[in-house]
Amino acid sequence: MFDFTLDGTQDTARAGTLVLPHGTVQTPCFMPVGTRGAVRGLHPEEVRRAGAQIILGNTYHLHLRPGEDVVAALGGLHRFTTWDKPMLTDSGGFQVFSLTALRKLDEDGVEFASHIDGSLRRLTPEKAMAIQWDLGADVAMAFDHLPPGQSTHDVARDAMDRTLRWLERSRHRHEELAAGTPGRQTLWPIVQGGSWPDLRRDSLAGLLASGDWTGVAIGGLSVGESKAVMYGVLEELEPALPRDRPRYLMGVGFPEDIVEGIARGVDLFDCVAATRNGRHGSAWTADGRVNVRGVALRLEDAPLDAGCDCEACARFSRGYIRHLFFAEEHLGPRLVSIHNLRFLIRLADEARKHVLDGTFAAWASEWRRRYFARGTTA
Fold first, then answer.
1. Active-site residue, from 90, 138, 202, 267
2. Which of 134, 138, 202, 270 is catalytic?
3. Cβ atoms within 10 A of the Cβ of 306, count?
4. Considering the entire predicted model, what is its pTM?
């Protein structure tokens, strides 16, 4: 039920097929984020029509509301959300460690105050596994310690070592939970180490020595470091990552990062930026970013992106979508969110096609030239 086949490569760019209990995912692939059990503002059918093969759910938010017990009682996350394709849940580590003023860390786990009602909660590797098991996604993530962006070597080393210790506890508890129903859910570890190449190498070596994983995630990037540093970390890790396992870059999903990540051997991406930018009127196009609220769009009858086949571009003009934003109609943010999701999903699909036919390098070079030509990207 958890299989990965490498269908083709060009240099370090890859195209593969990932088989999970709820379906098959062709990589490279962008995963929309359904933080609280829904991709923000969108109907599941809209997400499906945008081409999504797999979506992500957030352990922290679903634990706080409605609670994993409620989700389990109502049939698990797939039935609860009516999404019948593959799903992945993060461990909650990113959200917990983002609550700097509201949490207390020790070797056992993290105590934190709920951002909803202030109630004290505790998340440990074992608890994170139990929550994700109840949620029932195809892929669960090990509980990790995410250091702050641009951490010192000592701070990043401490977090990396703790992540490896917590990985053993995550693995042990997940094996206990899965003992009676093998093939229901798999567990992926997370590479940490901040921006330090030696720590990233040590983290990867440690997790590979600790188990025969069905996939490997790279965490702790896009948290304040420069894009050059992020790309450098990916280049450092790529030769040592298993070729026959999927590689998931966590929380990264701007268009340029998807192209550069694929060029450096990444298979899976996720990010809230597509819908967050959509809600604020920022649309991605082949020619860079478009501010939907801009006065220049007031009389434009063209679609957001002439080369896009999404429901927004197929039917509505830039001028109309701009009007929706200023009229405070909810349809405006929804249309741009749909477009942005489709743009990223189509971008990954296009990259896959070019990897398979051996033209990825030339395509990526031309994509960069056009996307950055007008200097309009964020």
1. 90
2. 270
3. 10
4. 0.97
